[in-house]
Amino acid sequence: MAYSDGEIMKTVKSLKRKSPEEPKQCDSFPALKHQLDLLESDLSFIMKFTGICLTHYTRKLVKQNETKTVQKYRLSENCQSVPFQLEFQMVEQNQNNKNISTVTGLSIIIESEGYSDLSKFISRVEESGNLLLFFKSLSCFSEWCGHQKRTLAHFKKLSIQKQPGGNLS
């Protein structure tokens, strides 16, 4: 399943809500429950849309003033059968009434046994801080790995069936 940058950004913008540090003022428990249900629904949609399942998430406020906010993120996730971890800082600056967000200090940990090109790709993404490129590429890579595993399992099953004493159907 491939999505264009425009489709992804449009979806993310439509789902964008205030951050957890700035919750909407709710006067009652039902309103809080409704807000939580909306956030859980958004998270579920994003996980289905991307194929990425968030298993652990932390965010820590590092610095905040009138023009700049720095937050440190740590995420553990799975993209189909490929587990990975991310750590980065998000620097949000208010310049000329425009919010500009920049990813810094990106560190990606992923098991890439036998995939030297993936290690090279991760190094380039860490240098550029391009999270959108990482998530899109990892999604495609994970899908390809799934197809590869199913294909190898199919041929393994066929080779077992063709062996003497194997059941050829």
Provide tags for this entry.
169 residues; extended; Centromere protein P; CENP-P
How would you describe what is shown here?
This protein has helices at 5-15, 29-50, 116-128, 131-162; strands spanning 52-64, 68-79, 82-95, 98-110. 5% of the residues are buried. The chain has a domain at 53-162. The two termini are 33 Å apart. The model is unreliable at 18-22 (pLDDT under 50). The protein is built from 4 helices and 4 strands. It is α+β, with helices and mostly antiparallel strands. This is Centromere protein P. InterPro entries: CENP-P (IPR027801). Pfam families: CENP-P. It comes from Salvator merianae (Argentine black and white tegu).
SSE topology:
Blueprint lengths: L4 H11 L13 H22 L1 E13 L3 E12 L2 E14 L2 E13 L5 H13 L2 H32 L7
Antiparallel strand pairs: 1-2, 2-3, 3-4
GO biological process, one term: CENP-A containing chromatin assembly
Protein name: Centromere protein P
Pfam family, one: CENP-P
Strand order of the largest sheet: 1-2-3-4
Radius of gyration: 21 Å
| Major sheet characteristics | 4 strands, antiparallel
**What is the ordering of alpha helices and beta strands?**
HHEEEEHH
Beta-strand percentage range:
25-35%
Number of strands: 4
Q: What percentage of residues falls in helices of 4 or more residues?
A: 40-55%
Mean pLDDT: 79
- Return residue spans where pLDDT drops below 50 for at least 5 consecutive residues: 18-22
* Count of alpha and pi helical runs: 4
The coarse overall form would be extended
Assembly classification: single chain
Instruction: Quickly give the structural class.
Output: alpha+beta
Distance between the termini: 33 Å
